[in-house]
Each structure stands twice: as C-alpha cells, then as structure tokens.
Write a structure and sequence with these properties.
The protein is an alpha/beta fold and 323 residues long. The protein is built from 12 helices and 11 strands. About 2% of the residues have low confidence. Bound molecules: flavin mononucleotide. Flavin mononucleotide binds next to strand 9.
C-alpha cells in the first residue's frame, strides 16, 4: 500500500470523490470529506476567479469546525482539480490560491504538470495526475507526481479504453507511488475489487452526481437512476477528447447518439468562457458505465455508509472464497 501520510487514518473507506465539472461544489466536497472520503472539485467550477478562494476558505473552515466538534471522526482531506491545458488561462492564478491555502491534494488532468508539482511540493501538498495509458503515466511519473489516477474503460467524462486489469498491473510494475483506479466504480464491492487488483484508492465520479449535495439538475439525477450501461456512448465530439455520455441526453439535443461525427481535436477548449465544454456537461450529460447501480439520490453520508458496508461484505466474501 502506498498512501501519503495525509491519507493514512483519515478515510472511512479508500475512496476519492472525483472532480466533476459543474457538479462538484463546496456542498458536495464538504459532505464527502465529513463522510470520510476525499472530496474534490475542479478549480474552474468556482467562477469568477475570486470565488475559488472563498470556496477553499469555506471548505477548510467547515471541516476544521466539524473535526473539532467530532474529534473521533475520520474527516478526509480535500482536493482541487487543475485542468492543465493551454486554453485554461486561470491555471497559474488558481494554483497560487491553492498554494496560499495549502490545499492538501491537487488533481491534475491533461498535460503533465511539472510546474504544478513544484508548487504543491513547496508546501507539502500531493499531486495526483489522471492518465488513460502507460505512455502518459510514464510522462507524469517523470514530472514527479505522487500518484497516478488510472482512468480505465467505462469511466464517466473523459475516459480511456483499457481494462483496469491491464493498466493497473502494468503500471504497478514500475510505479511506486499511490495508484487510484477509476471507471464504473459505483459501490463498495467495486471499491474492494480495485484494492484487490493493487490500487490504493478507488476514484468515483458518476455515482456522486445522484446525491442530495451534488449540483446537478433533478432531471440529470433521475436519468442516472433510470438508465443503464447500454445507454452510455463513447465519443470525442463534445470536447475533442473521448469520453462517456448518456445517450438519451445526446438525443434530446437533436443528435443521433449512434451516428455522431468525429470531433476536431484542435477545438478543445477548457478556458473559463462559454464554450462547447460548457454545453457538453450542461446539456449533454457525462456518465460512466457504472450507471446501472444508481437507483437513488441519497445524502452523501448515507451513500458512503452503504459503500462501507458493501466494502466490508466484499472483503468477507473474498476471504471466505479464497480460504
Ligand atoms: C459529469 C462529469 C464531469 C467531469 N468533470 C471532470 C473535471 O472537470 N475534471 C476531471 O479531472 N475529471 C472530470 N470528470 C471525470 C471524473 O473525475 C472521473 O474520472 C470519472 O467520473 C470516474 O468514472 P466514473 O464516473 O465511472 O466513476 C468528470 C466526469 C463526469 C461524469
């Protein structure tokens, strides 16, 4: 097991609630951390720029107060996600704010994040970078990241195509840092499977969209409860990067989900202005193949308690079968 000190004895179950464009804000992050899993949000969700500092102060304050009032509870650290792409003109500003407030974990996406690693390490922060293949994993490891998030087949939003069995085992042959596994993980049984495979943490997105605290339309939450893995489409049309989306939301926007054109990669835009990405996540709903297990929108605390019970049951079943 390779967990940094900040994650040792601070988690109820080894889970990171992953950053979700538009969906994750302070309510969701605070609920996740109070429930004992890492909560995270994309810095770009805090708009305009000064809102980022307000969010970080609010999260830190509420978690510190909660920990003081509940000294025996495991309150998890939080993370901020930085999109490392040339179209993100806020990147260095956002990282300066994270450095000022010593955000415990920075999650980076897209480009290998040398300058982000340097900034985070200056105050003892940790950097986890998300990748979909070994080539990108090696590049990120060369930049000194502390953890690799292996985004495997079936993950919501931008996703890879590799089986977790292939990617986790291959990366573990040479990487000694923290390994997070992502893709269609929706319950405690899948969390236990991720650990059995060799991951240190499960990285879960879609399941948390259908919770009380998520900033998502009611219709989006209901769609997650209604549809299943067969309704997920893998396309690069909406942002220039391949990802998984809910087919009925594509159909509702007037497109044929089964005959989507291929996108122009040069049109990728992760900046703070209005763009295709904004439309993609607002009207065309991202979701992973783990959708079939979602059939309610509970408070995060209840969902995490349920996941923990499933996780414990999975471990018992495994031990019984293995013995
Ligand atoms: C609606 C949606 C928005 C997302 N936004 C982001 C984002 O802003 N930054 C990021 O790094 N990953 C983003 N992701 C990817 C997730 O952080 C995570 O990799 C993925 O949800 C894990 O797969 P799962 O949904 O099957 O659990 C998003 C995923 C979804 C479904």
């Amino acid at each position: 097991m390779s967990l940094p000190p900040v994650l040792q004895n601070s988690l109820e179950i080894p889970v990171v609630g992953s950053p979700l464009f538009i969906v994750s804000g302070p309510e969701l992050v605070i609920a996740q951390c109070k429930a004992g899993i890492v909560g995270s949000f994309p810095a770009l969700n805090a708009r305009p720029e000064p809102v980022l500092e307000e969010w970080i102060i609010r999260i830190k304050t509420e978690l510190a107060e909660y920990q003081a009032a509940n000294p025996d509870k495991k309150v998890a650290p939080f993370a901020v996600n930085q999109i490392c792409h040339s179209s993100n003109n806020r990147l260095m500003h956002d990282m300066e704010v994270c450095t000022k407030h010593e955000v415990p974990i920075i999650i980076t996406s897209l480009r290998p994040p040398a300058e982000i690693v340097e900034a985070a390490h200056s105050y003892g922060g940790k950097v986890f970078h998300d990748v979909i293949n070994v080539k990108h994993a090696k590049k990120a490891a060369e930049q000194g990241v502390d953890g690799l998030i292996l985004v495997c087949a079936g993950a919501g939003g931008h996703a890879g195509t590799l089986s977790p069995f292939a990617l986790v085992r291959e990366v573990k042959e040479w990487f000694d840092g923290t390994i997070l596994l992502s893709g269609a993980i929706s319950d405690g049984f899948s969390v236990a499977s991720a650990l059995a495979l060799g991951a240190d943490l499960a990285y879960i997105g879609s399941r948390f969209i259908s919770t009380e605290e998520a900033n998502a339309d009611q219709a989006y939450k209901e769609a997650l409860q209604k549809y299943a893995a067969d309704d997920i489409i893998y396309s690069n049309l909406f942002t220039g990067v391949h990802g998984n989306y809910l087919a009925p939301s594509i159909a509702d926007s007037g497109l044929d989900p089964n005959n989507l054109p291929v996108a122009d990669k040069s049109k990728m835009n992760f900046g703070s202005g209005g763009n295709m990405k904004q439309k993609a996540w607002k009207d065309i709903w991202g979701c992973g193949q783990g959708i079939g297990l979602i059939d309610d929108a509970p408070p995060v605390a209840d969902l995490v308690a349920r996941m923990k019970a499933e996780f414990d049951e999975a471990r018992e079943q495994f031990n019984a079968k293995a013995s």
